[in-house]
Amino acid sequence: MKTYAKDDLSIVLSAEAGQGLQTLEQLMTRVFKLSGYHVYSYSEFMSRIRGGNNSTQIRISARMISSCPRRIDIFVPLHTGAMERFHDRITPETIILGDPAFIERRYTDGGYPIVAVPIAGLAREIGGEIYMSVILLGLFSGLLGVELTLLENLVRQFFSRAGEERTRKNIEAARKGYASGMHLLKPGQVLPVIERSEAVKNDLLLNGIDAIGTGCLAGGCTFVSSYPMSPSTGVLVFLAKNASEFGLVVEQAEDEISAANMALGSWYAGGRAMVTTSGGGFALMVEALSLAGCIESPLVVHVAQRPGPATGLPTRTEQADLEHVLYSGHGEFPRLVLAPGSIEEGFTLSRHAFHMADKYQVPVIILTDQHYLESTCTVGGLDVSATSSESFIVETDAAYRRYLFTESGVSPRGIPGFGRGLVCVDSDEHDEAGFITEDSRTRTAMVEKRLQKLRGLEKECIEPTLTGGEDYRHLVVGWGSTAGVVREALSVLGRNDLSFLHFSQVYPLHPNAASLIGRAQKKIVIENNATSQFARLVRMHTGIAFDAAILKFDGWPFLLEEVVERLEALL
Fold first, then answer.
1. Which parts of 242-311 fold into alpha helices (H)?
2. Residues 6+ apart with CB under 8 A from 527
């Protein structure tokens, strides 16, 4: 078996839906974090309730990480057929650990390093195969030197609502797995020796769902109306769980059309509303989006991308809805599109979305994807110092005009009952008071007034983040969830002439975008789609064409080694 010199460990567990893989991921990432390890995990699953084949990849490291490698150091199959989708990633250096019955003959007969552990048998000794996930939790805790008391306390806390007997058996399962794992593999020979940090124990352990949901709370969200649609449903569930503590009204609407219109009604009445959906659901919200543009209502929409067209791959990832959210809606009106690339950005940008929607009275779209939402990692902390729910609502007087012409294009926004004025809004073209008009001069002035807000949005544009030196010859440009893997790829390559420019605000583009991209000799865009949508946006607004594109659209996120290899080939 290979002697490891790495400072991290990549584990892949493959199971059927219903075998407790999600529970195992939650427990393993928590116990490793509490032991002082940095962790990063990503789950992928088939769109079925039971059966099929799901997997989770857990990476443990001595440093903060935000991507998954293609490399698998330990592979754990938990059912027959669990290895089928991983033949291109399992190598002679991958340790295959688990029940021999689940390990394919090509590996048993091919001289691969196999560590046989009767996981199902150990679970049956406790009371049934339902305890397999906790057996594995204990096994990996023993392998990596987690304190037994820490493991026991975590299991006790996690299963406390399951009843005394069930909790006792889970603790017994954890101990049995721990005893099996303590001497199974030797650190420094077949396992890396990973340095721990006391500071990591106090870090946060968050996924993209937590980041978006917490950011919405920090932005003063008071109303959520949505129709469930993967992978966005997790945000709806997060906000529903926290509704009582934070004073939210959460409404599961009958469809996405109703959800978007309910949100507009909330803003009209003085609430701060958002809807969370995916590409297919957003398609149904387009009329309401145009309504928001016409009545100049704030609106926050979270769109979690997944592969299309139609139902596509409903539980996989892609970045193919950028143009969908950019150009949806009839007529011309301004909007803001944000795409976080890290957990921290998910929090700050979601908070920022409410501020900008309220300030400029425009739709703000938070664009994520399944990979971003379903990835979990250690985070040093979230900056809550700027947390506020500043309101831009004004008290109206008798002469109030809802669509008063102003230099900025932003009219004073009143709400019914707050002041003496009449708050008249209309989806037809209207005059300053909100009454329907077909006067051509007023029409022209109103269109120009609404579009004038783009100048304000551009002035407050979030600058793209540059990783690497400012004297680059080659530049990689990306947006949204590609941030973590590209930054780590640059670290692996170690080239002084290569930098990475990441856009977390994709529209409007920052005024410096043209100069930052244009001065590179070789410009490479990286996107999880087939047609390089962001590259087209950049060319449309700057005139700059990219020299090469790294694209992926098979439903999987970019893995570290493939980004490194494709960059090496281009450079």
1. 243-246, 256-269, 279-284, 286-295
2. 319, 478, 479, 482, 533, 534, 535, 549, 550, 551, 552
* Residue 4 pLDDT grade (very low, low, confident, very high; cuts 50, 70, 90): very low
β-strand partners of 55: 14, 44
* Helix, strand, coil tally for the chain in percent (to 5): 40, 20, 40
Four-CA torsion 168, 172, 174, 175, nearest 10 degrees: 140
The one-character DSSP state at 227 is: -
Give the residue-averaged pLDDT of 290-307: 98
* Rg of the chain, C-alpha, whole Å: 26
The three-class DSSP label of residue 239 is helix
Segment (H or E) for 145: none
Residue 191 has pLDDT above 90, yes or no: no
Q: Is 361 left (phi over 0), alpha (psi -120 to 50) or beta?
A: left
The whole-angstrom separation of Cα 571 and Cα 558 is 18
pLDDT value of residue 2: 45
Q: What is the C-alpha separation between 277 and 304, in angstroms, rounded?
A: 6
Q: Return d(Cα 119, Cα 97) in angstroms, integer.
A: 10
Nearest residue to 333 (alpha-carbon basis) of 226, 236, 418, 457: 457
The rounded distance, in Å, linking the Cα atoms of 21 and 25 is 6
With beta carbons less than 8 A apart as the criterion, state whether 307 and 553 touch.
yes
pLDDT at position 387 is 64
Reported as a single tens digit per residue, the pLDDT across 200-257 is 999 999 999 999 999 999 999 999 999 999 999 999 999 999 999 999 999 999 999 9
Question: How many CB atoms sit inside 10 A of residue 485's CB?
Answer: 25
All domains in the chain, ordered by first residue: 8-200 (3.40.920.10), 206-379 (3.40.50.970), 393-460 (no CATH), 465-570 (3.40.50.920)
Distance from the first to the final alpha carbon of the chain: 34
Instruction: Answer for the pair 35, 196: CB distance below 8 angstroms, yes or no.
Output: yes
Tell me the three state secondary structure of residue 413: strand
pLDDT band at 271 (very low <50, low <70, confident <90, very high): very high
Q: Are 66 and 173 in contact (CB under 8 A)?
A: no
Amino acid code (one letter) for 497: D
Q: Tell me the average pLDDT across 306-318.
A: 95
Find out whether 409 and 243 touch, Cβ atoms under 8 Å: no
Beta strands 273-278 and 249-252 are unpaired
Q: Strands (DSSP E) along 62-187, which ranges?
A: 74-77, 95-98, 114-116
Cβ neighbours of 303 (radius 10 Å): 26
Q: For residue 334, which amino acid is it?
A: P
* Cα separation, 553 vs 307, whole angstroms: 8
Distances (CA, A) of 513 to 194, 355, 488: 40, 24, 23
What is the spatial distance between Cα 504 and Cα 524, in angstroms, rounded to a whole number?
17
Q: How large a percentage of the chain has pLDDT more than 90?
A: 92
